[in-house]
Design goal:
The protein has 20 helices and 23 strands. By secondary structure, it is of the alpha/beta class. The relative contact order is 0.12.
Length: 638
Amino acid sequence: MSKKRVFLIVLDSVGIGEMPDAASYGDEGSNTVYAASTSDSFYMPNMKKLGFFDIDGVTVHSKHAWAAKKEPFIGTVARMTEASRGKDTTIGHWEIGGVISSEPLPVFPDGFPDELIRAFEQRIGRSVLCNKPYSGTEVIKDYGREHEETGAPIVYTSADSVFQIAAHESVIPVDTLYEYCRIARELCQGKYGVGRIIARPFEGTWPDYKRTTRRHDFSIEPAKETMLDALMMDGKDVIAVGKIKDIFAGRGITEAVRTTSNQDGIDQTIAYTKKDFEGLCFVNLVDFDMLYGHRNDKEGYAEALSYFDSRLPEILDGLGEDDILMITADHGCDPVTESTDHSREYTPLVIYGEKVAKGLNLGTRSSFADIAATILDYFDVEGETEGESLLPKIKGSQIVSCGAVPTPHNRALQGEIAETVLMPGDPLRAKYIADHFLSDVTMFNDVRNMLGYTGTYKGKRVSVMGSGMGMPSIGIYSYELYHFYGVENIIRIGSAGGIGDQVHLRDVVIAMGASTNSNYAAQYRLPGTFAPIADYGLLRKAVDSAKKNGIPVVVGNVLSSDTFYDDNPEANALWKKMNILAVEMESAALYMNAARAGKKALGIFTVSDHVFTGESLSAADRQNTFTDMMKIALETAL
C-alpha cells in the first residue's frame, strides 16, 4: 500500500471577502482577492480548474470574464469561517491546526507599557527606539539612522499581536538579534503574551534600507494540543515549510525548512512531493502578506497570486494516488483599503486528489478547524480538534448531494445539465450541435473525451452529450444522467442501417420500439421478455415537429444490435420478416434505463446505408441529411 501524504499550503492573507463581524474589527468592505483582481496582472486559470472561483462569495473584477465563466471543476471547495477571536497569523494557523482561540491575543495600539520596555532594556543592556505601532518599511526609514548612531534596537508593533525588533545587521548581528527576541519571548507572557516576537533584520544605507530574508518569528505556544502534536505522537512525519515551525513554536514538527520567498517555498514544496514520507507537509507562503498586503501593493499581490497559479501544475504533478492537496489561507490583508493591517475575512479551501470528489462545493464551514479534523481523520489518528471532518463528504468514490454529483464518467455539477439531453454516439457530433444550434454554450464534461454541452435553443435550456458506441456505453451514460443529474428526457440521435423495404437513404426513422439481440434486460431478473418502447409524449411531439418543419419521417420498430459484424448472414433477413425498419446499436438499453428510472426516452435516426441494397451516403450527404434529424430532436426538446 502506498503511503498517505497531505500537502497543506497556506496562502498567507489571501482572504475572499469580509466576515459578518468585520466591522467590529475595522475591516468592513475588505476583500483581498477582489482587490488583487482589479489588476490586469491577475490570472489564475489553474486554481479555477480546481474550483477556487466557485467558492461561495468569491468575486473578481468584471475585466476577468474567464474567472466568472461557469465551468466544471476538478476539486472540492469550501468557504472557511474563522471561529477564533482575532485576525492574525498565529490565531489563524492555530485554528487551521484544530485550536479555536476564544480570546484574542493582546495588542498594543499605544505601544508597549513602560514596565515591559524597561525590563527588556535591562535584560539586553541597551535602550530601545520607537515603541509605537509602525509600518515595517517606514520604521527603519524613520529610525534607522539613529539606530546606526546609537546601537539601540528599534521596537515596534502593529494592529496585530506582535513585538517586533528591527536592527541593522552591521550594528546588531543576526544571532544577537535572535537572542534579544528570545528574551522578549520570555518577558511577553500572560497579559503581555503577544502571538509573535519577530526579528526584523535590515541592511543598506539610509534612506534606502532593505529588510533581509533572515526574519525569524518566535511564537507563543498553542494553549492546547494541535493536529501537529497528534500526528507526530502517532509516528507520522510533520514537515514544516516556511514559518510554520515559528508559528507553532516548534511543537509537533519532525522536520523543518525555512524559506526566503514564495518562489523558494514553492520549490521546497515541489521537492517534498518527490520525497518518501507519510504524514503532513505544512507550508506557509508569506510574500502575499509581508510584501504586498501590508504594503498596499495590489499589483504585487496580483502578480504573486498569478505566479503561484503558474507553479501549481508542478505541485499537482508530484502528487501520488493517495496524496491530498489542501490550499487555504489564515486571514485577509486587503491591499487597497486605507489600513495596512490584516483584515477579518473568510478564507478559501481547495482540496484536490485522485480520490477526492470532483466538482464538490461544501458551502460555508463554521471553522478553520475542519481542516485539522479532516487531516486527522484521513490518517486515522486520534486527536482533539474543534472542527468537523470533511472526509466522509469528499471521498471521491461517493456520490454526494452538496452541490455536485461527479461520477467516474462525468464532471458536471448539479444544475449544469438540462432536463432534456440529446445523445449522439459521436462526441464530436455533440460539439457540432452545440456549435451550430445552441447559444450561451458551456461545456460540462470532457472526461474520456465524451464531450457534453449545455446551451439554449429558442430560449429553452438543452444539453447535448456523446453516448459512445453500443448498449454498454449508452447504458452507463444514460443511467448516470437519469439517476445522478436529474435528467428527465434523453433523445438518442444517430445513424442507422436500413432493413425494411419501406425505408431509404436519408429517411428519418423514429423508433417507437427497439427490439434487441442483447441480454441487457437480464439484470432486471424479469419472468418474461421486456419490450423496450419510446415515451409516447416525446414520440408524438417528434412526429408533430417533423410535420411542422416539412421533414418526412417513418415511425416503427428498430433493432438494437450487440453486433456490427454478424457471423449469421440470415440474421437481418429474419428481422426484416418481423417488419424491423432499421438496425442501430443503442436504443434498447436507453429505453430500458428510462423505464427502470421512470423517465422518458426516444430514438431518432437517419438511414445512412441500407443492409440489402448496399447503398450508402457520402460524407457530405450525411452532414446535410443529419441536420434534419437534429432539428427534429431540438424541436422535440422545447
